[in-house]
TrEMBL record:
<dbReference type="GO" id="GO:0015035">
    <property type="term" value="F:protein-disulfide reductase activity"/>
</dbReference>
<feature type="domain" description="Thioredoxin">
    <location>
        <begin position="5"/>
        <end position="135"/>
    </location>
</feature>
<dbReference type="InterPro" id="IPR017937">
    <property type="entry name" value="Thioredoxin_CS"/>
</dbReference>
<keyword id="KW-1015">Disulfide bond</keyword>
<dbReference type="InterPro" id="IPR013766">
    <property type="entry name" value="Thioredoxin_domain"/>
</dbReference>
<dbReference type="InterPro" id="IPR036249">
    <property type="entry name" value="Thioredoxin-like_sf"/>
</dbReference>
<dbReference type="Pfam" id="PF00085">
    <property type="entry name" value="Thioredoxin"/>
</dbReference>
<protein>
    <recommendedName>
        <fullName>Thioredoxin</fullName>
    </recommendedName>
</protein>
<dbReference type="InterPro" id="IPR005746">
    <property type="entry name" value="Thioredoxin"/>
</dbReference>
Length: 135
């Protein structure tokens, strides 16, 4: 009986963590612009002609990625002129390879399908300067 309860608690915790990990948003409209991108979403997002698209390439096991993630979320809430996406490099290896990601976290700004700028590492001031410079 105890093992059944423990198993159920672990499943609930795992499910809750997955939901919370991907649940960054400030409104329904903006929620669509801050999500874990797959190949289809990524291609569509970076070809945006209207807005700059800022992509956070991260890994769940990456300590610096976890540290900078709340800062990325705050920037998402502050800057409505850009669309924000996250790409898990372990789940989306094709995207990571296509973009040339060599370290995590890496933040890449795109517009019209072209890479504008890139920041490698958990550098909060650099990330903020990047997004402000693209305004």
């Amino acid at each position: 009986m105890l093992s059944s309860l423990a198993s159920r608690a672990l499943r609930t915790t795992f499910t809750t963590q997955n939901v919370l990990k991907r649940g960054f948003h400030s409104s329904i409209r903006r929620n669509e612009q801050f999500l874990n991108a797959n190949a289809e979403t990524f291609s569509k997002a970076i070809s945006n002609e209207d807005n700059v698209v800022l992509v956070d390439f991260y890994a769940d096991w990456c300590g610096p990625c976890k540290v900078i993630s709340p800062i990325f979320q705050k920037l998402f809430e502050q800057f409505s002129h850009a669309d924000f996406y996250k790409v898990d490099v372990d789940d989306q290896q094709d995207i990571s390879q296509e973009v040339g990601i060599r370290a995590m976290p890496t933040f890449v700004a795109f517009k019209n399908g072209s890479k504008l700028k890139e920041i490698v590492g958990a550098n909060p001031s650099g990330l903020q300067e990047l997004i402000q410079g693209l305004a």
